[in-house]
Specification:
The structure holds two protein chains of two kinds.
Chain A lengths: L2 H9 L3 H23 L2 H18 L9 H21 L35 H9 L3 H12 L4 H8 L3 H40 L1
Chain B lengths: L5 H11 L8 H12 L1 H22 L7 H12 L12 H7 L4 H16 L12 H6 L1 H22 L6 H26 L4 H23 L1
Helix pairs in contact in B: 1-2, 6-9, 6-10, 8-10, 9-10
The chains are: A mainly alpha, B mainly alpha.
Chain lengths: 202, 218
């Protein structure tokens, strides 16, 4: 059943059409939730909540935007709302970034030539760093770099400008780089300490 | 000409998103800076590494568990958002139910139940000794089948011509059960040790015996 037909039938309450729409999009929505919250139980809950909101409103869908964009917009909102509740603060997308104390922008770090990420990061430590990003950065990073959305689509999903999406993504990558460098430095320190201890025992 | 700093490089990088690629004069200065500045080269390389690792995250994403849909469907039904299609009927209903009006079926099923309840009097001893039969299926297969066939012929001969819908449905059901018995007998012949196949055949014989008893009752 093509998506357009499934939407039309779902608007009439057809159970099979709802299932078809769910099966078409569940993987990407679940993946988005999982990357945003880093916890499978919560990701399941959020996926269900996003689809529930979608299906409650499906009669109002008029096709002005792509169905998947509409769904992702709902999903991102559901996730951001949850994260806001967690941090118990009411904040906008911009406020959910991490401003630099001096300039109001993110900290600028051009890195040191002796510390490189190439060959040192894998999925696990990248996800660990992503988990530490502020929600706004995280959403744009997951949508663009993990899920492959374009900036114009992200702008629609996040209800922001294309420039804002680009800027958020850049800041997210910068913050990730910083976090990953910190992790590498910590690991190098631990290795040195372990080597020192081993030398002391000899 | 003002010095092109690392901050200028980063600003340019941010606005061009994928890094300095164009051939504009500004871009030439960007390229020159990149060539001469190890920090900015390291910066560009790191961002490339992060992007590559990010694509790997998507590849490793697990399948969403099926319980999400089950729970979602239940919630949608509860809220009256989806209208579930009628549940699929069992094989027994499919076998005995197609194409016949509900009152006729009800009459047929009631007749079967009554026949069983009254002990299946008449020439057919339809209550097969289940355990004895299951213990020796191979030796019992042919005699029992033959016994049922001869009982069927006797029942059909003794049955007055009737055009009633109930009689028609009983004949139809008898035909269906015969086909089912034939399939089950083949299974038992192919796999004589298969207890499940023997069990199905037993049930099929039982159904036929019940139907014949019902014919006799009429």
């Amino acid at each position: 059943m093509p998506e357009a037909e499934a939407i039309r039938l779902a608007q009439a309450g057809n159970a099979a059409a709802f299932e078809r729409l769910y099966r078409l999009h569940n993987r990407r929505v679940y993946s988005l939730c999982l990357r945003m919250v880093g916890n499978t139980a919560e990701a399941e809950d959020l996926t269900q909540e996003a689809f529930l909101q979608l299906f409650r409103k499906i009669a109002t869908f008029r096709g002005e935007s792509a169905f998947s964009t509409w769904l992702h917009r709902l999903a991102v909102n559901v996730v951001l709302m949850r994260l806001r509740k967690k941090s118990a603060t009411e904040s906008s997308l911009d406020e959910m970034t991490e401003p630099d104390e001096e300039s109001g922008g993110p900290r600028r770090d051009f890195g040191t030539p002796d510390l490189r990420l190439s060959g040192s990061i894998d999925r696990v430590n990248l996800q660990r760093a992503v988990d530490q990003l502020p929600p706004g950065y995280k959403a744009v990073f997951v949508l663009h770099d993990v899920q492959g959305y374009e900036h114009n689509e992200i702008a629609e999903i996040m209800d922001c400008s294309i420039g804002n999406s680009k800027s958020q993504l850049h800041k997210a990558r910068m913050r990730l780089r910083e976090l990953l460098h910190e992790e590498l430095r910590d690991k190098a320190r631990e290795d040195r300490r372990a080597a020192g201890n081993a030398g002391g025992e000899d | 000409m003002a010095t092109f700093t690392c901050r200028d490089f980063q600003d340019h990088f941010e606005s061009s998103e994928d890094g300095p690629r164009s051939a504009s004069p500004r871009s030439l200065r960007v390229q020159a800076h990149l060539r001469d500045c190890p920090s900015c080269r390291n910066f560009v390389e790191d961002l490339g590494t992060i992007r590559a690792a990010a694509t790997q995250l998507a590849v490793s994403d697990p399948e969403p568990p099926e319980r999400i849909w089950s729970s979602l469907r239940a919630q949608l039904q509860q809220e009256g958002i989806i209208h579930e299609a009628p549940a699929k009927q069992s094989w027994f209903h499919e076998f005995f139910g197609f194409g016949l009006p509900r009152p006729v079926l009800a009459g047929g099923y009631l007749a079967v139940l009554l026949a069983i309840a009254f002990g299946l009097s008449g020439p057919i001893n339809s209550r097969i000794n289940r355990q004895r039969w299951l213990d020796g299926t191979q030796s019992s297969l042919t005699p029992l089948s033959a016994q049922l066939t001869s009982a069927e012929q006797a029942s059909l001969l003794s049955l007055p011509a009737s055009e009633s819908p109930v009689a028609a449905s009983l004949h139809k059901n008898l035909e269906i059960v015969d086909n089912y018995i034939s399939l089950c007998e083949n299974s038992v012949r192919e796999e004589p040790e298969n207890e499940l196949a023997r069990e199905y055949l037993y049930e099929a014989y039982q159904e036929k015996a019940d139907l014949l008893a019902q014919l006799n009752e009429r």
